[in-house]
Design a protein that fits this description.
The chain has 127 residues and is mainly beta. Helices cover 0% and strands 47% of the residues. Strands 2, 4, 5, 6, 9, 10 and 11 form a 7-stranded mixed sheet that branches. Strands 1-3-8-7 form a 4-stranded antiparallel sheet, with no helix packed on it.
């Protein structure tokens, strides 16, 4: 599966931003986004990539890192093959490259569970 993020930009502290991740496959006829559990990770300069949020194959259950709980919301539209991350009350420490992640067998809540990565989109929160 190919993943392409969009929506990253410069935003002020306290602002909001919505990231999108479009999913596609070479085999369009049989492709279904429901095959994959999806997630978001981020990587700040000089730091390791970390888990942000994950969502069940059907969208029935979501998981969040403690640092974003209550501020971020992950959702998916399987008909549009798109994953979203709504980010509210942004803080300077949210500045990072945000990566879309997918996995068929496990919820992508840790690096080792991710089977596919997007290229990332830069989010910068100014103080």
């Amino acid at each position: 599966v190919q993943l392409a993020e969009s929506g990253g930009r410069l935003v002020q502290t306290g602002g909001s931003l919505r990231l999108s991740c479009s999913a596609s496959d070479y085999d369009f006829a049989s492709y279904s986004m429901t095959k994959y559990a999806m997630g978001w990770f981020r990587q700040a300069p000089g730091k390791e990539r970390e888990f942000v949020a994950a969502i069940h194959w059907t969208g029935s259950t979501t998981f969040y890192a403690a640092s974003v709980q209550g501020r971020f919301a992950i959702s998916r539209d399987n008909e549009r093959n798109t994953l979203y991350l709504q980010m509210n009350t942004l803080k300077p420490e949210d500045t990072a490259v945000y990566y879309c992640a997918a996995a068929q067998t496990r919820l992508p809540r840790e690096l080792g569970a991710v089977e596919y990565w997007g290229q990332g989109t830069q989010v910068t929160v100014s103080s």
